[in-house]
Structure formats: structure tokens, C-alpha cells
């Protein structure tokens, strides 16, 4: 049974349709991403899963339970990353973590979590005195302190510097390795590509695609561009006979070969047969940002 099932979720705020028709399922142990432009309905979808909002239509199930009816039970088993401003400003880091740990039947060790998130030396700092990045890390610690089966993380690394972001990704992978299922809302392509097993791309309240990051990219294009400087003069025409190759172009000393499938292997095998070495070899292929643009018509932020 999937850990999360969303079927035809629909949610309005007055006349404004925030989520039109969203369906997806998250399997146990997955890191599942929800990716989409601003205002696509990502946060509203997650808030419905958290039981904070009542859907106007559709069916939701979280760990086989109903997010609103079974909220008390789910609160024990699902970790939620709180949005900015929902914490008591004056409480200190250690106090907040101990307080939250006390809500759960089987809490994690707060000291260990602080160490993992690099917050040990800020144990006695009041929440409002923390930098934005540390507030963010504390919100992740609070989402994990109940040893949840499922963590719902909205804008996991927003406001973090690149190093803190990478550390957080490592942490999330370690949490998943312990068997926790993770639903992640993000608008960072690199984050989605690096962390997510599968991604639902949402635009204007609808799911436009659900697939692995590589699968999303492959839907849009399989084109790869291979550039290199041959160690000996080469007739570009030799590559045109390869079925994987679509075009070959000379750019100064370099050759630029475009193709699909296993074009890199085809090109390097032919070079090896010819006894030519490829200097400065570079391979470019489409990334998740290209797929995002093709699927939603929006540029990533
Ligand atoms: P972002 O990436 O900007 O956080 P999102 O994909 O999470 O966007 P939502 O926050 O779910 O999108 O918002 C979806 C739509 O609903 C947006 O047009 C937003 O302006 C609107 N909306 C969200 N919350 C409310 C609210 N409480 N009242 C009225 N409209 C709302």
C-alpha cells in the first residue's frame, strides 16, 4: 500500500482554485518531490496532507489514514517542517527540541539531532536570535524529532547557503536510509535532481508529469552533445555513418557531434578504432531545468 495516495485533489480559496486536479502516490522509502512554479498549488497540496486544510474534492490517504479524521494518530507518525514564524520566538533551541520530543511516543535523541544539524553550540540561543539558515535547520530537526515514518518537508533548503544546502541533502539521504519516506516540496532543480527518486511536476493546480528525474528529462529530449579536440585530423563525415549521430560540426580545432541513445559510446569507440585521442572531451545533456521549462513553460527561478 502506498504511504501517500492523492486522488483528484481539488481545493479552492473562495473563487480562487489553488489545486485543480492533483493525483499521485508515494511508495514506502521513497524521496518524492513536488516541483512547480510559484502559485502552482504545492503548499496547499501538502497542507491538505498535513490535515491543516479540508479538500473541496478528491480522496487523500496518509499511512492508510485520513489526514483530518485521524490527525491525532498521524501527528505521532508524520514529521512536518513548520513554516517560518510558527515557532515561539523566545524559546531556546534546546528547549524547543525537548518540548517537541515530549509530544512523541518514540522520540529521537534531541542531542544527537542537534549535533547532526550542526546546532549543538546554539542549544542555548533563542529561536529569534538564530540566523535564517539555522532557523531552517532547526525546523528540519523538529520535523525529525518524533522519529517519523514519513516526513513532509516544504521548501527544505530555502534560505540556506550552498554548503548548508549540501549538508542538508546528506542528512535527508541519511534519514531515508533509516527507512523514512520523504515528501519534499522544492523549486530548486538541483535539489530535486540530486535527492528525489520520483517527482510530480505541478503547474496551475494540475500534475503535468510524474517520473524519475532522468525520466522527466528523457520525455523532453534525449539529445547529447559531444565536443572534443581530435589528436589527428579527422573527416567529420566518418561519424555521420553512426546510427546514433544526428549531426557533426567543426568549430575551429574541435568537433561537435550531436546525437541520441548511446552516442558517447559510439563516438569514443570509433575514435579508439581510428587510433585518435579525444582531447578536452565534454558531454552536455539536457537537465531537469530543461524538462521543467518544456513541461510548464516557466523558467526555473
Ligand atoms: P509557492 O511556490 O509560491 O509557495 P505553491 O505552489 O506552494 O506556491 P500555493 O501556496 O499552494 O502554491 O498557492 C496556490 C494558489 O492559491 C496561489 O495562487 C496562491 O496565491 C493561492 N493561495 C494560497 N493560499 C491562499 C489563501 N490562504 N487564500 C487565498 N489564496 C491562497
UniProtKB/TrEMBL annotation:
One CC-aspect GO term: plasma membrane
GO biological process: response to antibiotic
Annotated ABC transporter domain residues: 4-229
Pfam families (alphabetical): ABC_tran
PROSITE patterns registered for this protein in UniProt: ABC_TRANSPORTER_2
Intracellular or extracellular location(s): Cell membrane
Main location: membrane
Annotated source species: Amycolatopsis pretoriensis
UniProtKB keywords: Antibiotic resistance, ATP-binding, Cell membrane, Membrane, Nucleotide-binding, Translocase, Transport
GO-annotated molecular function: ATP binding; ATP hydrolysis activity
Protein's UniProt name: ABC-2 type transport system ATP-binding protein
Membrane topology: Peripheral membrane protein
Amino acid at each position: 500500500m502506498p504511504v501517500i495516495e492523492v486522488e483528484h485533489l481539488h481545493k479552492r480559496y473562495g473563487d480562487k482554485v489553488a489545486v485543480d486536479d492533483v493525483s499521485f502516490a508515494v511508495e514506502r522509502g521513497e524521496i518524492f518531490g513536488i516541483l512547480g512554479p510559484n502559485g502552482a498549488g504545492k503548499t496547499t497540496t501538502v497542507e491538505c496532507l498535513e490535515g491543516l486544510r479540508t479538500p473541496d474534492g478528491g480522496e487523500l490517504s496518509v499511512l492508510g489514514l485520513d489526514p483530518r479524521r485521524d490527525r491525532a494518530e498521524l501527528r505521532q507518525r508524520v514529521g512536518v517542517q513548520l513554516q517560518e514564524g510558527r515557532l515561539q520566538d523566545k524559546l531556546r533551541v534546546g528547549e524547543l527540541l525537548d518540548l517537541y520530543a515530549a509530544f512523541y511516543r518514540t522520540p529521537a535523541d534531541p542531542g544527537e539531532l542537534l549535533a547532526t544539524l550542526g546546532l549543538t553550540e546554539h542549544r542555548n540561543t533563542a529561536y529569534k536570535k538564530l540566523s535564517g539558515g539555522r532557523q531552517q535547520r532547526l525546523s528540519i530537526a523538529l520535523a525529525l524529532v518524533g522519529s517519523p515514518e514519513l516526513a513532509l518537508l516544504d521548501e527544505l533548503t530555502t534560505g540556506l547557503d550552498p554548503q548548508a544546502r549540501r549538508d542538508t541533502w546528506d542528512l535527508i539521504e541519511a534519514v531515508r536510509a533509516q527507512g523514512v519516506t520523504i515528501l519534499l516540496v522544492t523549486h530548486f532543480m538541483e535539489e530535486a535532481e540530486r535527492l528525489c527518486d520520483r517527482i510530480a511536476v505541478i503547474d496551475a493546480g494540475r500534475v503535468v508529469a510524474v517520473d524519475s528525474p532522468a525520466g522527466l528529462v528523457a520525455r523532453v529530449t534525449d539529445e547529447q552533445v559531444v565536443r572534443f579536440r581530435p589528436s589527428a585530423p579527422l573527416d567529420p563525415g566518418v561519424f555521420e555513418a553512426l546510427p546514433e549521430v544526428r549531426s557533426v560540426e567543426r568549430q575551429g580545432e574541435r568537433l561537435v557531434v550531436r546525437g541520441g541513445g548511446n552516442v558517447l559510446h559510439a563516438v569514443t569507440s570509433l575514435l579508439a578504432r581510428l587510433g585518435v585521442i579525444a582531447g578536452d572531451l565534454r558531454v552536455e545533456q539536457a537537465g531537469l531545468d530543461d524538462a521543467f521549462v518544456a513541461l510548464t513553460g516557466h523558467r526555473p527561478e
